[in-house]
Structures are given as C-alpha cells and as structure tokens.
C-alpha cells in the first residue's frame, strides 16, 4: 500500500509543477502585453521624508549611547591621565591627509561639471515646497503638500539653478578643533564655510584664508578634561594673521572662487557627465571614510551641522519644540547624507519624449539623486547602487492600459 501512495503523491507533484510552469508562462505573456510590472527587485522603498515632528534616525543605538555616557561619567570620577589617539589628541591622522586633498579636488570638479551640464539640462524648482525636477517638461505629479500649496497639490514651477541640485550645507569654521564650542554671541564673528570643506580642513588641508591650529605635541585627558601642554599661540603661529574679518553682510562665494583654479578643457557633454559622476562617487566615498575618524554633529530636527567632536551653542533652531530647548539644537551624530545631502528627483527614462510624468502612473516611476539624474540624462552610466531605484525593469503602462494593471 505504501508504493501506491508514493505513486499518487508523485503524480500530484508532477501535475502541480506542470500547472505552475504554465501559469508562469501565461503570466509573463500578460505582463509583456498589458504592462504588468514585476515585484522582484523593484519594491525598494524610496527615502521617506521625515515629518516636522519626527527626529532623524540615530546612527548609534540610544541604549548604546547611554551606556557610553555612564562609562564616561564613571571614568571622570577617577583622577588619572588617559592617553588620547589622533585626532582626539589634536594631531592629524597621516593616512587620511591624501584622502582629504582628494575629496576637496573632487568637490571642486563636481561643482564645475554640474555647472557645465546645467547649461544643457533644464532645472526646475517648486516655489512652494522646493521640489526639484530635471528635464525640459516638468512633471505633473501632485506631491506639493505643504502649508501654502494649492488644493490640487500641483507644483508651481520656476527655473532653478545649481544650488537646487547641490544644496549648500555650511558649518562654522573652527580654528582649534579641541577648543570650546562657538557661543551664541560669536555667531557673527566666526566664518561659515561648506561642511565638506571644513571636514577636509580638519583632516589636513591648509587654506590661508581659513587658518587652523596644527599641534606638534598631543593633548591629554585628565578626569575627562582635555589638557593641552603646548603653548596657546606658538611663535610660528601668529594669531590674527591672514584672517579676513567679514560679516554676514559681506557674502563670499567660496565655491566659485575655488572653481577658478580648475581648467576644464572644451569637450562634449557626455565626457563631462562621466567625469562628474566619478567625482560624485569618489567624493562621497572619501567623505564617508573621513567621517569614520573625524566626527560631525547634526541637529536631529533641522539641517544644521557642525563638523567637530561637539556641536555649537548658537540658539537658532526653529524646528519642532525649539522653545523647550531655548532655540538650541538637538545634536546627534551626522552621516554622509547630512554633509552631502542628496536631493531626490523623479527619474525620466525618455528625455526625448514630450509627454511629462503624470500623477496616475507615479508608482511606476523611479527616483534618483539630482546629481546622478542630471549626469544620467547627459549620457553617463548610473552606478550599480542606484540601479534598483531607477525601476528600469518596471514596464510603465500607457494611459489606455492603466485599468488593466493590478
């Protein structure tokens, strides 16, 4: 009786496999015929916009931060000397100095390439919510859902510029990385420079217009306090020399000044886009490597960032419940997206098509960072990290096929 049951189970298994293969073939034919889309790799969630009441996700678990804080408080109760390692002791990490120079060079080249490609690709920005679109025809997707927007949630488009693709993120320049934090009364006396440039300066780049203290002897930690046995102002360091005293009324375009030193040879648009894409990848990877050693702090509710071991004390936060903090920022560890924020835009597959992206088919469209989308439209190949977000394997149905899609 057992062999008979075995034969029956074998026949049922073969029948099930035959039916499943037939259904898969028919399903694939229907997908290609009616524009059905697969959900194998295309269900990657796009970066979600945080609400005004939400805090940025912690890089380190909050329980781990509490444990580290308890250990530090217990360590401060014991009066003893603790040897610090670079860069906590004020010295530079020699292995990261070439990385800092490379990141700064990639930053200058990236801005130059974006400025050149922006002359051929239109940039649009919503005057209400600030959303960005790249391409000749702005999309019709109704995602303008902020205070002051229209009832239809349609965007009010206007021509944008390079700062909409590469938004400037500034940080206070610190003369002494281990010194005290910038106070509220000093907010107009300390220069603000791009955060990525400040990261490179602290990692080893020397700029005459932004002097930085370079220690020869390391600092030590005694009972939690950093003790510096080196003179405050050595003889070879003249305080106040080469410092440009400028206020907030005298704006300085630091990025454009740096770009003057880059000599871009006349070439086609695609070659410029390829160089810009490579500079974007190298800059982000190099900055991530620097941030593993040189810390940066960001506010958990707003876009303020301070490169250094601690945040500043300027009370200019206007985010969620800033009254409870007296305008001070809720500092936490920063990520590469805080230093170099990617502006996500809708991906346009066919740049030659005159039909704009419509709201009814938005779930079939992909998204890319604005820099990557601009270079992709100019002819550069998209890196593998962004291929899934493009949703190129999703068949976008036509308007008459929309009702046939499930």
TrEMBL record:
GO MF term set: RNA binding
InterPro entries named among the record's database cross-references: APO_dom
Domain annotation APO: ranges: 125-209, 298-384
Source organism superkingdom: Eukaryota
Name of the protein: APO domain-containing protein
Organism of this sequence: Gossypium darwinii
